[in-house]
Amino acid sequence: MKLTAQFIAQHLAPYQTASKLFIGYSGGVDSHVLLHLLANIPALKHKLTAVYVHHGLQACAGDWAQHCQQISRDLGVAFKRLKVNAQAKPGQSPEEAARIARYQAFKQLLGKNDVLLFAQHRDDQLETVLLQLFRGAGLKGLSGMPTAIQFAHGTLLRPLLEINQQEIKHYVQQHDLQWIDDPSNQDIQFDRNFLRHNIIPLLEQRWPGLDKTVARVAEHCAGAQQVLSANARQQMHGLYNEQQQSLSIPGLLAHEPPSHQWILREWLHQLGVRMPTQKVLSAIMQDVLLARPEANPLVEHDGHTIQRYREGLYLVAVKQLPDLRQVFAWTDSNKSLALANNGILKIKPVQQGIALNRWQQGDIQVKYRQGGEKIALPNRMGRHSLKKLYQEAGIAPWLRDVIPLIYINGELAAIASYWINADFYSQSETCICLLWDQSRRND
Question: pTM value?
Fold first, then answer.
């Protein structure tokens, strides 16, 4: 039998420098076995915390939390309870709502160099891949659950993924463990339970070893997914405007049609939003990419709209605009400045930009456009209105009003990351430039 503390220790060997180890502990048989195994590794035990997520969906969830706490105490393991709101939103299944709430709680828990352990096993992988197949998933879905993946600031590890349920039950009997049986696991109105109790037993009668076969298919899909994603990521970066976070539409359409969806997925992943459904991808390609240049179609996805401006594809957050009358005093010019609901302004040492002495000695304020602002630019004659500059640069209309303007001693010195006033520009001194990180619009 390979299910031993030594087996788990080997899986954790690459993470021996981890600061903390957290295990998702529901009190069920699988997580109890994993906790028992981990508690029998002396070198790791002092780092280990069992974490029970209280969803509030079962009347006896409080009793389960107490059971988990007692088991953890008996094993000499630290314990933590996290309470979450797992009520399903309209159009969301109870399973999905609980999973999202649980994962969000764990993300907030993990620090840098921490490891989170889940007790999913090979039978769970079989269920996951079949569910994805029946939902029409692509390669990513058919890859199933990875053994290890970056998660929040740390790593999510599933050390039992090559172990089947029978081996886990054998370990339970061998060590006389007591666990919690969640009655909802018998409710076949949930897709996973229906598969587990009604479908998979029939399939395994016909095809013994199905869990191994499907796990191998998942590995093949994961390998193909990695190769195709890496290729699409390289193509995407060739089309990506980092400053505007946009994607070149002509550049995208120049690729073969099968590549379009892969590149779009990598672009959305780069911007940190949830992966789109096939319906959303089709809408982007048909309604946005192929729209007339003067049209402004929108596709909604994950709290954003995907739309075009000129030859660029943009992801626009649907959220409250910042107060455009607000003025920010940049009192510590050596540190970044957070803008309410509008990201963060950072400074970066450069060889040409705003002269450092003028930056450090000036009274710095950040404002928004009120109308009529003009600026003189290096190597260009005259003074230029912001409206004309934005049009020339192809800055999307929905960005123009929220672009931060930086004033030094009452004079417009810079326009976010875009332009610097000629009167403040230097090439012969130590300088700084400004970086506007729009991805942090909620900071």
Answer: 0.74
